[in-house]
Amino acid sequence: MSFRTFGHVRVPAPGLILDDVRGAQKMLAGVARCTPMEGSRYLTHLVGSPVHLKCENLQRTGSFKLRGAYIRIAGLSPEERAAGVVAASAGNHAQGVALASSLLGVRSTVFMPVGAPLPKVAATREYGAEVRLHGQVVDETLAAAQQYARQTGAVFIHPFDHPDVIAGQGTVGLEILEQCPEVRTIVVGVGGGGLAAGVAVAVKVLRPDVRIVGVQAEGAASYPPSLAAGRPVALESAQTMADGIKVGRPGDVPFALVEELVDEVRTVSEDELSSALLLCLERAKLVVEPAGASPVAALLSQPESFEGPVVAVLSGGNVDPLLMQRTLRHGMAAAGRYLSLRLRLTDRPGALANLLGVLSAVDANVVDVSHARTDPRLGLTEVEVELQLETKGPEHCTEVRGALREAGYRVVS
To answer: Each residue of 29-83: pLDDT tens digit?
Structure first.
C-alpha cells in the first residue's frame, strides 16, 4: 500500500487506497450484506430533491462495523491470528469484531464497560467473543484492552484508526455509487471518522463532484476544533445519547483523510437526534440508533442546504430498548407530541375532574398526573398538579394552553 504525508501523519494515498476498498469489497462478498437503499418521501419533500436512506442498520450485527473488523482481522498473519485479537467497545465494534473473528476462526476477547446495555453484551457473547466487563467509561475499557494486548500478545483491533478498517468501511461508499449513481450529496455520521474517511476515499476518487457531509453530535463534536487546529484535538468531555459517535478524539489516520476529502462537518443537537430517530421509526419503519440517525437529524435541521439526490447513511440500529424508550419520549417532546404542565387548583372535590374535562374537550390525552400539597409556596387551599399530556404537535400544544387559560387556570410552567 502506498502512503502520503498529511501533516505529521503518514496515511494511505487517497488515489491509491481505492484499490484496497475494491479488494475489501471482494473479501466481504458472502460475509457482509450489500444493504438496501430506501427512498424517503417525507425527507424528499422536505429537501426538495430525492433522499435515499442507506440502511446499514440492517447489516449483520446491526451496523457497518463488521466490514472494517473483518478486513482488519483477515489481514493478520498466521502468527497474529494464533495469538487472538482483543477489542474495546460499548456495542457495535464489539459485535463486529466478535462475528468477524468467529467467521475467520480467530479467538477474540472484547472488553466492554460495566454499564454496557445487556442486549449488546449478550449479542457479543453469542457471536463468539469472550466478554470482559471493565471500567465505567470507554476510556477505562480501552486502557484495559490495550493492557491485555501487551500482556498476552493478542492483536488490538482499533475501531477506526487503521487503514484496513477504513478500507472495509469504504465499501459502503462503493455500494452507494452502484445503487444511486446520480447521487450529489452523501451525509454520514462521524465519531472517530473511520466510516466518513472510507466513504470519502471510495467516492471522491470516482466521483469528485459528490459532496460529503459529516455529522457529529454537539456534545461530542471533536472534528470541528480539530479541523480548525489542523490536527486531532481531544475534547475535555463528551456527552451525547448517540454513543456510536461519542468519541473524544479523532483517529490520526481517518482525520487526515477527512481533512483532505470530506467537504464539511456539521453538528446536531440532542433534540434533533431524537426527532430523527422518531422520524425513522414512524415514517421509514426503520429501527435506528441515535448515531445512525445523525444524518437524518442534519437533513431535518437544514433541509434547504443539501443538493440532491441525497444519500443519508443509517450507520446502525443497535439501540438498547430502554434508551429507545427514553429517546422516543424525548423525540416526541421535541416534536411537540408531549406537553408537560404544572397548574394550581383549589383543593376541593371535583377540581381535578373539571380540569380533565377541559383537556378532554381539546382532545389532549393525559399520560400522567401527580399532586403536590406540601410545597410552602402553595396557599392553604391550593394544590399543584403536574400533567404529562400526549398531543398532536406544536399547534395542538398551543391550543391546549389557550383552552386552559380561557377556563381560568393558571399555568405555572
So the answer is: 999 999 999 999 999 999 999 999 999 999 999 999 999 999 999 999 999 999 9
**Any alpha helices (H) in 246-382, and if so which ranges?**
252-261, 270-283, 294-301, 321-334, 351-361
Q: What is the 3-state secondary structure (H, E, C) of 141-185?
A: HHHHHHHHHHHHCCEECCCCCCHHHHHHHHHHHHHHHHHCCCCCE
Burial class (CB in 10 A: 0-12, 13-18, 19+), 304: exposed
Residues 40 and 283 sit within 8 Å (Cβ to Cβ): yes
Quote the CA–CA distance of 205 and 255 in Å, as a whole number: 17
Task: Output the pLDDT for position 12.
Answer: 52
The answer to whether residues 162 and 276 touch, using CB atoms and an 8 Å cutoff, is: no
Distance between CA 409 and CA 354 in Å, rounded? 11
Please say if 315 is a catalytic residue. Answer: yes
Amino acid occupying residue 196: A
d(CA 217, CA 205) in angstroms, rounded, equals 28
C-alpha angle with apex 384: 383 to 387, nearest 5 degrees? Answer: 135
pLDDT in tens, 244-295: 898 889 999 999 999 999 999 999 999 899 889 989 998 999 999 999 999 9
pTM above 0.90, yes or no: no
Catalytic residue among 89, 222, 226, 315: 315
Choice among 65, 120, 204, 246 that is catalytic: 65
What residues have CB less than 8 Å from 191, skipping those under 6 apart?
160, 216, 220, 244, 245, 246, 247, 291
Assess whether 413 carries a catalytic annotation: no
pLDDT at residue 1 greater than cutoff 70: no
Higher pLDDT, 259 or 140: 259
> Comparing 157 with 405, which gets the higher pLDDT?
157
Any residues with CB less than 8 A from the CB of 107 and at least 6 apart, and which? 84, 85, 101, 130
